[in-house]
TrEMBL record:
Pathway: Purine metabolism; AMP biosynthesis via salvage pathway; AMP from ADP: step 1/1. It comes from the Bacteria. ATP binds at G23, A24, G25, K26, G27, T28, R140, G213. The gene is adk2. One of its GO terms (biological process) is AMP salvage. PROSITE patterns: ADENYLATE_KINASE (PS00113). Belongs to the adenylate kinase family. This is Adenylate kinase. NCBIfam families: adk, PRK00279.1-2, PRK00279.1-3, PRK14527.1.
């Protein structure tokens, strides 16, 4: 039986990796997992900023590297992550967002977790239908008067070109909300993520969750996956 979201209890610290293309609702779902399971979402950018601000040894190394205009190495990120995972708020587990990005980083992460007898519980891939995603994003437009959102297919104003709410006829489209841009963002995501997907598939921890439905339905599917993967 799956525990209710409010009462979900993990029997051991969970290490989850959340993978999903732009527009799949990754941020929303990560927040729901944080609330439901007491997990902490760790993104690489936040980790770096916090370590630099705290002036930890790894943070100071990262700061020097960044000030020299160089890229922060995998080793530095791993060291920062090691420090962060040891903090009390991570006791119930973490959701990693944006790390690892490569199989080399994934292997380094496995070694780090092995130091404390841990391993990845699940690498969750939020799966989208590319064509549907393109249609969803590319059809969006917004009222310039009041900011109301519309969509070519899913939400037309009652009078074409006129806002239902404020009557304005100034409709605007974001330059990057077009089929070509959305398509290439998805292609770049798939190209970057494919090696990770097969890496975690090979380890038997890959979980695919359909991310095309309602937010709450996706959250329920994710919750089941996390519950099973951590018990
Ligand atoms: Zn309007």
């Amino acid at each position: 039986m799956i525990a209710d979201m409010d009462t979900a209890v993990l029997t051991r610290p969970a290490v989850l990796i959340l993978l999903g293309p732009p527009g799949a609702g990754k941020g929303t779902q990560a927040r729901k997992l944080e609330q439901g399971f007491g997990l902490v979402q760790l993104s690489t950018g936040d980790l770096l900023r916090a370590a630099v601000a705290a002036g930890t040894p790894a943070g100071l190394t990262a700061k020097a590297v960044m000030e020299a205009g160089e890229l922060v190495s995998d080793e530095i990120v791993i060291n920062i992550l090691r420090d962060r995972l040891a903090e009390p708020d991570c006791a119930k587990g973490v959701i990693l967002d944006g790390f690892p990005r490569t199989t080399v980083q994934a292997e380094a992460l496995d070694r780090l977790l092995a130091e404390s007898g841990q391993q990845i519980n699940a690498a969750v891939s939020l799966e989208v239908d590319d064509a549907a995603m393109v249609a969803r994003v590319a059809g969006r437009y917004t009222c310039g008067g009041c900011g109301e959102g519309y969509h070519d297919q899913f939400k037309q104003p009652r009078v074409a070109g006129t806002c239902d709410r404020c009557g304005s006829t100034e409709m605007t489209r974001r330059a990057d909300d077009n089929a070509e841009t959305v398509g290439s963002r998805l292609a770049a995501y798939h190209a970057q993520t494919a090696p990770l997907i097969s890496y975690y598939d090979g380890k038997g921890v890959l979980q695919r969750v359909d991310a095309m439905g309602e937010i709450d339905h996706i959250a329920t599917s994710l919750q089941k996956v996390v519950s099973v993967a951590t018990t």
